[in-house]
Amino acid sequence: MGNLFESRTGASFDASQPGVRTLQAWVRSKSPINVQLSDGTKLDGILRWVDGEFLGLQPEYEKQPILVSRSAVAVIRILA
After folding, report:
1. With contact defined as beta carbons under 8 Å apart, do 21 and 33 qualify?
2. Which of 28, 34, 36, 59 has the lowest tally of Cβ within 10 angstroms?
């Protein structure tokens, strides 16, 4: 039986997965990243948090992070 989040959204967040651990390391180190979406849009910023559905990406000149749907992400690159 999954947790309440999984039962409501169908999404899973397994912190034991290497990709999730890498994202969490980038959050801790505040490394700048580039996110390329499936439609070709590119976004730069610092990864503030990650959950089962979204990335919290804070662009350099924004006060608040933007939500990026993980399902829309094609590529994530570290810029540092």
Report:
1. no
2. 28
Inside any domain, residue 35:
yes
d(CA 49, CA 2): 22
Q: How far is it, in rounded angstroms, from Cα 78 to Cα 5?
A: 28
Cβ atoms of residues 37 and 73 within 8 Å: yes
Domain count of the chain? 1
Does the residue 75 lie in any domain? yes
Residue 54 sits at φ, ψ, to 5 deg, of: -135, 160
Predicted confidence (pLDDT) per residue in 33-72, tens digit: 999 999 999 999 999 999 989 999 999 999 999 999 999 9
What pTM did the predictor assign?
A: 0.78
Does the structure show a pLDDT above 60 at 8?
no
Residue 23 phi, psi (nearest 5) = -60, -40
